[in-house]
Amino acid sequence: MFPLLKRALLSSVFVLPTALYAGDYTYQQTTQITGGSLLKMMKTVGVFSSQARHMGDPIVSTIYLSGNRLADVSPQQIQIIDLDKETITQVDVEKKTYSVMTFEQMKQAIENARQRMEQEAAKQKGQASTAQNPDAQDVKMSFDVKVRKTGATKDVSGLNTNEAILTMTMTATDAKTQQSGNLAMTNDLWMVPSVPGYEQVREFYQKFGKKMGDVTAGMGRDFSRMLAQQPGANQAMGDMAKEMQKLDGVPVMQVMRMGTTTNGQPLPAASEAPLPTEPAGPTKGEIAKAGMSSMISSRLGGFGGFGKKKQTTPPPDQTADAAGAQQTSAILMEMQTTTSNFSSGPVDPSHFDVPAGYKQVTAPMLEHQQDSK
Predict the structure, then answer these.
(1) What is the pTM of this model?
(2) Is residue 307 in some structural domain?
(3) Residue 248 pLDDT > 70, yes or no?
């Protein structure tokens, strides 16, 4: 389901005019994991796994829109959303298989997953309140969201863009020990005021959102209730809504970072603190000599300091930098997405068909649902 989720997340920050366009539309997106501890780890194990070895390779997707059908096509997989038939077709190009799931089936699968999460959360809460678990953490959450326009400009795919930086920081503090850890996301957005014809893409996702509205609205209410239980969360949600309104335009390039910080500050944006060039990954012989587990452990580093014991020697990701200053953040993943080649030309209907000779299988989300029964 990655293409669907990626499209939904990216479109959520597109604040576009309300004028609607009819017809066909095509554009491309290139997504690549460009750095972070996760990529380092995958390079380490990549000598054994072809899939891990290619994790940092760019993935180029072409998105075709025609009326109420949208196809997200990459060399590895194809996803087709049909609003009229209310179906999502997932095609595995490498395995030459495909699955079809209705909107109702997807709603039910999401609802079942939500209920399982609620049950698990209630179970953990009950365990934390028992005498058998006296060391359970009473964790308080705080949130901070900011949008900052830097005034910087850059040419992206022949378009003159302006930079906006979106930062989100979540801080968890143990009420008993006062230890805290910070999870953070920073999205470096290079935006244009508008892209001719792109409004119909937004309209497509609005229609899709309405058809899936029952379950997505329910998830939103559950998330709001969860946040409302935390002191200051209502204020944080209000601040988030105000900040998101500052994103006026279409981001044609995004560099998203996810990671941890030790001081509660946001992760630095890619334009302000580029990652250093990574050395080549180790060979099989080096891994065998050093020991697989110790090498992976050393490359992953810490997790923001929450609940950690004091270390006499800091891990590599937290050592002092060249200027002698102590690093205050660790980046788990950096991912760049570039959108280009916008076109209002006619779309070949064959892009919305399953290739001939492919075998139909059960949708992965429905398989998980059957396994949980």
Answers:
(1) 0.67
(2) no
(3) yes
